[in-house]
Amino acid sequence: MQNESNSQHRADGGLSKVTTLIFAAAAGLSVANVYFAQPLLGSMARDFGIPPAAIGLVVTLTQLGYGLGLIFIVPLGDLVDRRHLVVGQGVLSVVALAVVAMARTEAILFAGMAAVGLLAVVVQVLVSFAATLATPTERGKAVGMVTSGVVIGILAARFVSGVLADLGDWRLVYLTSAALTLTMVSLLWRVLPRNVPPDSTDSYTATLRSIPVLFLTDRVLLVRGILALLIFAAFSAFWTALVLPLSTGPFGFSHTQIGLFGLVGMAGAVAAAGAGRLADRGLGQWTTGVSLALLLASWGLIALLPWSIPALLVGVVLLDLAVQAVHVSNQSIIFDRHPQARSRLVGGYMAFYSLGSAIGAIGATMAYAHAGWAGVSTLGTAISVAASVTWAFTRHWPVSIKQAGCAMCDGVASQFRKHPVSQGVRGP
Protein backbone atom coordinates (compact mmCIF):
# COMPACT_ATOMS: atom_id res chain seq x y z
CA MET A 1 0.00 0.00 0.00
CA GLN A 2 2.81 2.41 0.79
CA ASN A 3 4.50 1.78 -2.55
CA GLU A 4 1.16 2.37 -4.27
CA SER A 5 0.86 5.74 -2.62
CA ASN A 6 4.45 6.79 -3.21
CA SER A 7 4.24 5.85 -6.88
CA GLN A 8 1.81 8.70 -7.40
CA HIS A 9 4.68 11.20 -7.06
CA ARG A 10 7.46 12.10 -9.46
CA ALA A 11 11.02 10.99 -8.97
CA ASP A 12 12.16 14.61 -8.56
CA GLY A 13 9.98 14.97 -5.49
CA GLY A 14 7.35 17.09 -7.20
CA LEU A 15 3.66 16.37 -7.66
CA SER A 16 2.62 14.33 -10.68
CA LYS A 17 -0.23 15.63 -12.80
CA VAL A 18 -2.47 12.75 -11.72
CA THR A 19 -1.90 13.42 -8.02
CA THR A 20 -2.48 17.14 -8.51
CA LEU A 21 -5.77 16.41 -10.26
CA ILE A 22 -6.83 14.15 -7.38
CA PHE A 23 -6.00 16.92 -4.92
CA ALA A 24 -8.05 19.36 -7.04
CA ALA A 25 -11.05 17.00 -7.27
CA ALA A 26 -11.02 16.28 -3.54
CA ALA A 27 -10.74 19.97 -2.72
CA GLY A 28 -13.60 20.81 -5.09
CA LEU A 29 -15.92 18.22 -3.56
CA SER A 30 -15.07 19.31 -0.03
CA VAL A 31 -15.66 23.02 -0.61
CA ALA A 32 -18.89 22.29 -2.47
CA ASN A 33 -20.36 21.24 0.89
CA VAL A 34 -20.11 24.87 2.02
CA TYR A 35 -21.94 26.23 -1.03
CA PHE A 36 -24.67 23.67 -1.70
CA ALA A 37 -27.07 25.75 0.41
CA GLN A 38 -27.03 28.94 -1.66
CA PRO A 39 -29.59 27.89 -4.36
CA LEU A 40 -31.61 26.13 -1.63
CA LEU A 41 -32.17 29.07 0.69
CA GLY A 42 -35.75 29.58 -0.48
CA SER A 43 -36.63 25.91 0.07
CA MET A 44 -34.98 25.87 3.49
CA ALA A 45 -36.79 29.04 4.52
CA ARG A 46 -40.16 27.53 3.59
CA ASP A 47 -39.36 24.18 5.23
CA PHE A 48 -38.39 25.72 8.59
CA GLY A 49 -40.50 28.89 8.44
CA ILE A 50 -37.46 31.19 8.50
CA PRO A 51 -38.05 34.78 7.29
CA PRO A 52 -36.34 35.56 3.93
CA ALA A 53 -34.27 38.37 5.47
CA ALA A 54 -32.84 35.91 8.05
CA ILE A 55 -32.23 32.83 5.88
CA GLY A 56 -28.78 34.22 5.01
CA LEU A 57 -27.77 32.95 8.48
CA VAL A 58 -27.45 29.48 6.93
CA VAL A 59 -24.60 30.73 4.75
CA THR A 60 -23.19 33.05 7.41
CA LEU A 61 -22.97 30.34 10.10
CA THR A 62 -21.38 27.94 7.62
CA GLN A 63 -18.76 30.54 6.76
CA LEU A 64 -18.14 31.35 10.42
CA GLY A 65 -17.64 27.64 11.10
CA TYR A 66 -15.22 27.59 8.19
CA GLY A 67 -13.38 30.54 9.72
CA LEU A 68 -13.00 28.74 13.06
CA GLY A 69 -11.65 25.68 11.25
CA LEU A 70 -9.11 27.83 9.45
CA ILE A 71 -7.81 29.15 12.75
CA PHE A 72 -7.90 26.00 14.88
CA ILE A 73 -7.66 23.04 12.44
CA VAL A 74 -5.67 24.06 9.35
CA PRO A 75 -2.50 25.05 11.32
CA LEU A 76 -2.32 21.43 12.52
CA GLY A 77 -1.02 20.67 9.03
CA ASP A 78 2.35 22.10 10.11
CA LEU A 79 2.47 19.83 13.16
CA VAL A 80 0.92 16.42 12.38
CA ASP A 81 0.70 13.84 9.61
CA ARG A 82 -1.41 15.59 6.98
CA ARG A 83 -2.71 12.29 5.61
CA HIS A 84 -4.35 11.40 8.92
CA LEU A 85 -5.62 14.97 9.33
CA VAL A 86 -7.27 14.96 5.89
CA VAL A 87 -8.89 11.56 6.32
CA GLY A 88 -10.11 12.34 9.84
CA GLN A 89 -11.78 15.55 8.71
CA GLY A 90 -13.40 13.70 5.82
CA VAL A 91 -14.97 11.09 8.09
CA LEU A 92 -16.36 13.72 10.44
CA SER A 93 -17.72 15.66 7.44
CA VAL A 94 -19.80 12.64 6.47
CA VAL A 95 -21.40 12.71 9.93
CA ALA A 96 -22.08 16.47 9.79
CA LEU A 97 -23.68 16.22 6.33
CA ALA A 98 -25.96 13.44 7.54
CA VAL A 99 -27.03 15.59 10.51
CA VAL A 100 -27.97 18.46 8.19
CA ALA A 101 -29.94 16.12 5.92
CA MET A 102 -31.98 14.81 8.85
CA ALA A 103 -32.44 18.12 10.71
CA ARG A 104 -35.97 18.82 11.92
CA THR A 105 -35.42 22.07 13.83
CA GLU A 106 -33.70 25.34 13.07
CA ALA A 107 -31.20 24.78 15.88
CA ILE A 108 -30.07 21.42 14.47
CA LEU A 109 -29.90 22.85 10.96
CA PHE A 110 -27.78 25.81 12.05
CA ALA A 111 -25.48 23.66 14.20
CA GLY A 112 -25.07 21.11 11.43
CA MET A 113 -24.23 23.77 8.85
CA ALA A 114 -21.65 25.30 11.20
CA ALA A 115 -20.06 21.84 11.60
CA VAL A 116 -20.03 21.34 7.83
CA GLY A 117 -18.16 24.63 7.47
CA LEU A 118 -15.76 23.80 10.31
CA LEU A 119 -14.73 20.50 8.70
CA ALA A 120 -14.67 21.74 5.10
CA VAL A 121 -11.33 23.42 5.82
CA VAL A 122 -9.77 20.13 4.74
CA VAL A 123 -9.66 22.01 1.43
CA GLN A 124 -6.95 24.30 2.76
CA VAL A 125 -4.98 21.41 4.24
CA LEU A 126 -4.91 19.95 0.73
CA VAL A 127 -3.80 23.29 -0.79
CA SER A 128 -0.90 23.69 1.64
CA PHE A 129 -0.02 19.99 1.22
CA ALA A 130 0.19 20.48 -2.56
CA ALA A 131 2.39 23.56 -2.09
CA THR A 132 4.73 21.56 0.15
CA LEU A 133 5.01 18.62 -2.24
CA ALA A 134 5.48 20.68 -5.43
CA THR A 135 8.90 21.82 -6.60
CA PRO A 136 9.66 25.56 -6.18
CA THR A 137 9.46 26.23 -9.92
CA GLU A 138 6.03 24.60 -10.20
CA ARG A 139 4.50 25.64 -6.88
CA GLY A 140 2.33 28.40 -8.34
CA LYS A 141 1.13 26.06 -11.08
CA ALA A 142 0.22 23.34 -8.57
CA VAL A 143 -1.54 25.79 -6.25
CA GLY A 144 -3.36 27.25 -9.24
CA MET A 145 -4.62 23.83 -10.35
CA VAL A 146 -5.82 22.81 -6.88
CA THR A 147 -7.38 26.21 -6.30
CA SER A 148 -9.12 25.96 -9.68
CA GLY A 149 -10.63 22.72 -8.41
CA VAL A 150 -11.84 24.64 -5.35
CA VAL A 151 -13.51 27.38 -7.39
CA ILE A 152 -15.02 24.87 -9.82
CA GLY A 153 -16.40 23.01 -6.81
CA ILE A 154 -17.92 26.23 -5.46
CA LEU A 155 -19.61 27.02 -8.76
CA ALA A 156 -20.65 23.47 -9.70
CA ALA A 157 -22.18 23.09 -6.23
CA ARG A 158 -24.98 25.45 -7.21
CA PHE A 159 -25.88 23.47 -10.32
CA VAL A 160 -25.63 20.07 -8.64
CA SER A 161 -27.66 21.14 -5.62
CA GLY A 162 -30.27 22.68 -7.92
CA VAL A 163 -30.66 19.49 -9.95
CA LEU A 164 -30.89 17.26 -6.88
CA ALA A 165 -33.36 19.63 -5.20
CA ASP A 166 -35.59 19.53 -8.28
CA LEU A 167 -35.38 15.71 -8.37
CA GLY A 168 -36.12 15.34 -4.66
CA ASP A 169 -35.72 18.12 -2.11
CA TRP A 170 -32.91 20.02 -0.44
CA ARG A 171 -32.25 17.14 1.98
CA LEU A 172 -31.31 14.85 -0.93
CA VAL A 173 -28.42 17.22 -1.69
CA TYR A 174 -26.78 16.58 1.68
CA LEU A 175 -27.46 12.84 1.69
CA THR A 176 -25.81 12.56 -1.73
CA SER A 177 -22.88 14.67 -0.59
CA ALA A 178 -22.38 12.46 2.47
CA ALA A 179 -22.09 9.40 0.21
CA LEU A 180 -19.68 11.13 -2.21
CA THR A 181 -17.55 12.44 0.65
CA LEU A 182 -17.23 8.93 2.08
CA THR A 183 -16.04 7.71 -1.34
CA MET A 184 -13.56 10.59 -1.52
CA VAL A 185 -12.13 9.72 1.89
CA SER A 186 -11.51 6.14 0.76
CA LEU A 187 -9.64 7.36 -2.33
CA LEU A 188 -7.52 9.84 -0.40
CA TRP A 189 -6.55 7.18 2.12
CA ARG A 190 -5.04 5.23 -0.77
CA VAL A 191 -3.27 8.00 -2.70
CA LEU A 192 -2.07 10.56 -0.15
CA PRO A 193 1.69 10.27 0.45
CA ARG A 194 2.84 8.62 3.63
CA ASN A 195 5.73 9.51 5.91
CA VAL A 196 5.86 13.20 4.98
CA PRO A 197 7.42 14.87 8.03
CA PRO A 198 5.66 17.90 9.58
CA ASP A 199 7.10 21.31 8.73
CA SER A 200 7.38 22.40 12.36
CA THR A 201 8.11 21.03 15.83
CA ASP A 202 6.35 23.92 17.60
CA SER A 203 3.61 23.26 20.12
CA TYR A 204 -0.01 23.72 19.05
CA THR A 205 -0.39 26.79 21.27
CA ALA A 206 2.76 28.40 19.88
CA THR A 207 1.59 27.67 16.35
CA LEU A 208 -1.76 29.38 16.95
CA ARG A 209 -0.08 32.40 18.55
CA SER A 210 2.27 32.73 15.59
CA ILE A 211 -0.55 33.25 13.06
CA PRO A 212 -1.50 36.83 14.00
CA VAL A 213 2.20 37.61 14.51
CA LEU A 214 2.92 36.62 10.92
CA PHE A 215 0.21 38.87 9.52
CA LEU A 216 0.88 41.79 11.83
CA THR A 217 4.64 41.86 11.27
CA ASP A 218 4.58 41.23 7.51
CA ARG A 219 2.47 43.91 5.88
CA VAL A 220 2.45 42.14 2.50
CA LEU A 221 0.65 39.21 4.14
CA LEU A 222 -1.80 41.60 5.78
CA VAL A 223 -2.60 43.34 2.51
CA ARG A 224 -3.13 40.02 0.76
CA GLY A 225 -5.47 39.01 3.57
CA ILE A 226 -7.46 42.24 3.22
CA LEU A 227 -7.73 41.71 -0.54
CA ALA A 228 -9.02 38.18 0.11
CA LEU A 229 -11.66 39.54 2.49
CA LEU A 230 -12.85 42.08 -0.06
CA ILE A 231 -12.91 39.91 -3.19
CA PHE A 232 -14.75 37.09 -1.44
CA ALA A 233 -17.21 39.53 0.12
CA ALA A 234 -18.07 40.62 -3.43
CA PHE A 235 -18.14 37.00 -4.64
CA SER A 236 -20.40 35.85 -1.80
CA ALA A 237 -22.69 38.87 -2.11
CA PHE A 238 -23.40 38.02 -5.74
CA TRP A 239 -23.88 34.28 -5.43
CA THR A 240 -25.90 34.44 -2.22
CA ALA A 241 -28.35 37.02 -3.58
CA LEU A 242 -28.64 35.70 -7.15
CA VAL A 243 -31.23 33.05 -6.24
CA LEU A 244 -33.59 35.68 -4.79
CA PRO A 245 -34.55 37.58 -7.98
CA LEU A 246 -34.21 34.58 -10.30
CA SER A 247 -36.56 32.36 -8.32
CA THR A 248 -39.40 34.92 -8.37
CA GLY A 249 -41.25 36.88 -11.06
CA PRO A 250 -40.68 37.74 -13.81
CA PHE A 251 -38.11 34.94 -14.11
CA GLY A 252 -39.39 32.13 -11.89
CA PHE A 253 -36.40 29.91 -12.63
CA SER A 254 -36.12 26.42 -11.11
CA HIS A 255 -33.24 25.31 -8.88
CA THR A 256 -31.63 23.60 -11.88
CA GLN A 257 -31.86 26.70 -14.07
CA ILE A 258 -30.38 28.88 -11.35
CA GLY A 259 -27.58 26.36 -10.87
CA LEU A 260 -26.66 26.68 -14.55
CA PHE A 261 -25.35 30.17 -13.82
CA GLY A 262 -22.65 28.49 -11.73
CA LEU A 263 -21.56 26.44 -14.74
CA VAL A 264 -21.19 29.66 -16.72
CA GLY A 265 -18.96 31.01 -13.96
CA MET A 266 -16.75 27.93 -14.24
CA ALA A 267 -15.45 29.27 -17.56
CA GLY A 268 -13.95 32.21 -15.74
CA ALA A 269 -12.49 30.01 -13.01
CA VAL A 270 -10.80 27.71 -15.53
CA ALA A 271 -9.46 30.68 -17.51
CA ALA A 272 -7.83 32.02 -14.34
CA ALA A 273 -5.79 28.85 -13.74
CA GLY A 274 -2.83 30.49 -15.46
CA ALA A 275 -2.55 33.07 -12.67
CA GLY A 276 -0.31 30.71 -10.73
CA ARG A 277 2.11 30.44 -13.65
CA LEU A 278 2.23 34.23 -13.89
CA ALA A 279 3.00 34.40 -10.17
CA ASP A 280 5.85 31.91 -10.67
CA ARG A 281 7.28 34.43 -13.17
CA GLY A 282 7.06 37.31 -10.68
CA LEU A 283 3.92 38.90 -12.15
CA GLY A 284 1.66 38.49 -9.12
CA GLN A 285 1.15 42.22 -8.57
CA TRP A 286 0.35 42.89 -12.22
CA THR A 287 -2.13 40.00 -12.30
CA THR A 288 -3.82 41.32 -9.16
CA GLY A 289 -4.30 44.81 -10.58
CA VAL A 290 -5.74 43.66 -13.90
CA SER A 291 -8.05 41.20 -12.15
CA LEU A 292 -9.40 43.80 -9.74
CA ALA A 293 -10.21 46.08 -12.70
CA LEU A 294 -12.18 43.20 -14.24
CA LEU A 295 -13.98 42.62 -10.93
CA LEU A 296 -15.14 46.22 -10.83
CA ALA A 297 -16.24 46.08 -14.48
CA SER A 298 -18.22 42.90 -13.86
CA TRP A 299 -20.62 44.68 -11.50
CA GLY A 300 -21.61 47.11 -14.24
CA LEU A 301 -22.91 44.15 -16.23
CA ILE A 302 -24.34 42.32 -13.22
CA ALA A 303 -26.44 45.38 -12.37
CA LEU A 304 -28.31 44.88 -15.67
CA LEU A 305 -30.02 41.69 -14.40
CA PRO A 306 -33.57 43.08 -14.50
CA TRP A 307 -33.16 43.93 -18.21
CA SER A 308 -30.50 41.63 -19.71
CA ILE A 309 -29.67 38.03 -18.85
CA PRO A 310 -26.84 37.91 -21.48
CA ALA A 311 -25.14 40.89 -19.83
CA LEU A 312 -25.45 39.12 -16.47
CA LEU A 313 -23.80 35.99 -17.89
CA VAL A 314 -20.81 37.98 -19.15
CA GLY A 315 -20.59 39.64 -15.76
CA VAL A 316 -20.58 36.23 -14.05
CA VAL A 317 -17.62 35.07 -16.15
CA LEU A 318 -15.67 38.26 -15.45
CA LEU A 319 -16.42 38.14 -11.72
CA ASP A 320 -15.30 34.54 -11.31
CA LEU A 321 -12.22 35.06 -13.51
CA ALA A 322 -11.18 38.07 -11.44
CA VAL A 323 -11.76 36.52 -8.02
CA GLN A 324 -9.96 33.29 -8.93
CA ALA A 325 -6.96 35.11 -10.43
CA VAL A 326 -6.50 37.33 -7.37
CA HIS A 327 -6.93 34.36 -5.04
CA VAL A 328 -4.30 32.24 -6.81
CA SER A 329 -1.89 35.19 -6.97
CA ASN A 330 -2.40 35.83 -3.25
CA GLN A 331 -1.66 32.25 -2.26
CA SER A 332 1.41 31.98 -4.50
CA ILE A 333 2.81 35.18 -2.95
CA ILE A 334 2.21 34.21 0.68
CA PHE A 335 3.56 30.66 0.27
CA ASP A 336 6.76 32.08 -1.19
CA ARG A 337 7.32 34.43 1.75
CA HIS A 338 7.24 31.85 4.59
CA PRO A 339 7.63 28.30 3.24
CA GLN A 340 8.17 26.85 6.73
CA ALA A 341 4.69 27.93 7.86
CA ARG A 342 2.42 27.15 4.92
CA SER A 343 -0.44 25.56 6.84
CA ARG A 344 -0.72 28.39 9.34
CA LEU A 345 -0.32 30.90 6.51
CA VAL A 346 -3.21 29.42 4.56
CA GLY A 347 -5.23 29.18 7.75
CA GLY A 348 -4.71 32.84 8.57
CA TYR A 349 -5.18 33.99 4.99
CA MET A 350 -8.37 32.01 4.50
CA ALA A 351 -9.76 33.38 7.77
CA PHE A 352 -9.91 36.71 5.92
CA TYR A 353 -11.67 34.89 3.07
CA SER A 354 -14.23 33.32 5.39
CA LEU A 355 -14.96 36.59 7.17
CA GLY A 356 -15.42 38.31 3.82
CA SER A 357 -17.77 35.57 2.60
CA ALA A 358 -19.87 35.82 5.76
CA ILE A 359 -20.07 39.63 5.47
CA GLY A 360 -21.00 39.40 1.80
CA ALA A 361 -23.72 36.80 2.42
CA ILE A 362 -25.57 38.61 5.18
CA GLY A 363 -24.94 42.01 3.58
CA ALA A 364 -26.41 40.88 0.26
CA THR A 365 -29.60 39.44 1.75
CA MET A 366 -30.13 42.61 3.79
CA ALA A 367 -29.39 44.84 0.77
CA TYR A 368 -31.84 42.87 -1.37
CA ALA A 369 -34.53 43.02 1.30
CA HIS A 370 -34.24 46.84 1.46
CA ALA A 371 -33.29 47.87 -2.09
CA GLY A 372 -33.67 44.87 -4.38
CA TRP A 373 -31.04 43.93 -6.95
CA ALA A 374 -29.88 47.54 -7.22
CA GLY A 375 -28.88 47.37 -3.56
CA VAL A 376 -26.87 44.18 -4.12
CA SER A 377 -25.13 45.69 -7.16
CA THR A 378 -24.26 48.84 -5.24
CA LEU A 379 -22.83 46.76 -2.40
CA GLY A 380 -20.72 44.67 -4.79
CA THR A 381 -19.44 47.76 -6.60
CA ALA A 382 -18.46 49.46 -3.33
CA ILE A 383 -16.55 46.38 -2.17
CA SER A 384 -14.75 46.11 -5.52
CA VAL A 385 -13.76 49.78 -5.39
CA ALA A 386 -12.32 49.23 -1.90
CA ALA A 387 -10.27 46.29 -3.17
CA SER A 388 -8.91 48.30 -6.13
CA VAL A 389 -7.96 51.22 -3.88
CA THR A 390 -6.18 48.86 -1.46
CA TRP A 391 -4.13 47.39 -4.30
CA ALA A 392 -3.37 50.81 -5.81
CA PHE A 393 -1.88 52.14 -2.56
CA THR A 394 0.31 49.05 -2.08
CA ARG A 395 1.18 48.08 -5.66
CA HIS A 396 4.82 49.24 -5.37
CA TRP A 397 5.58 47.00 -2.38
CA PRO A 398 7.84 44.10 -3.34
CA VAL A 399 5.88 40.88 -2.79
CA SER A 400 8.91 38.59 -2.75
CA ILE A 401 11.44 38.28 0.05
CA LYS A 402 14.18 38.35 -2.59
CA GLN A 403 12.71 41.45 -4.24
CA ALA A 404 12.66 43.16 -0.86
CA GLY A 405 16.40 42.67 -0.56
CA CYS A 406 16.00 41.14 2.88
CA ALA A 407 19.32 40.37 4.50
CA MET A 408 19.68 37.05 6.25
CA CYS A 409 16.60 35.67 4.45
CA ASP A 410 18.24 32.26 4.44
CA GLY A 411 17.94 32.21 8.21
CA VAL A 412 14.27 33.18 8.39
CA ALA A 413 12.95 29.63 8.44
CA SER A 414 15.21 28.44 11.24
CA GLN A 415 14.65 31.59 13.29
CA PHE A 416 10.89 31.27 12.95
CA ARG A 417 10.98 27.68 14.16
CA LYS A 418 12.98 28.67 17.21
CA HIS A 419 10.91 31.77 18.03
CA PRO A 420 7.50 31.39 16.36
CA VAL A 421 5.91 34.25 18.31
CA SER A 422 8.68 36.78 18.74
CA GLN A 423 10.15 36.45 15.26
CA GLY A 424 8.58 37.63 12.05
CA VAL A 425 9.57 39.06 8.72
CA ARG A 426 8.61 42.69 8.45
CA GLY A 427 7.36 43.72 5.05
CA PRO A 428 9.31 46.19 2.96
Automatic annotation (TrEMBL):
Keyword check for Coiled coil: no
Entry-linked InterPro entries: MFS (IPR011701), MFS_dom (IPR020846), MFS_trans_sf (IPR036259)
Domain of life: Bacteria
Name under which the protein is recorded: MFS transporter
Transmembrane region(s): 21-41, 53-73, 85-103, 109-130, 142-160, 172-192, 221-246, 258-279, 286-305, 311-328, 349-368, 374-393
UniProt xrefs under Pfam families: MFS_1
Entry keyword set: Membrane, Transmembrane, Transmembrane helix
Domain Major facilitator superfamily (MFS) profile: 19-398
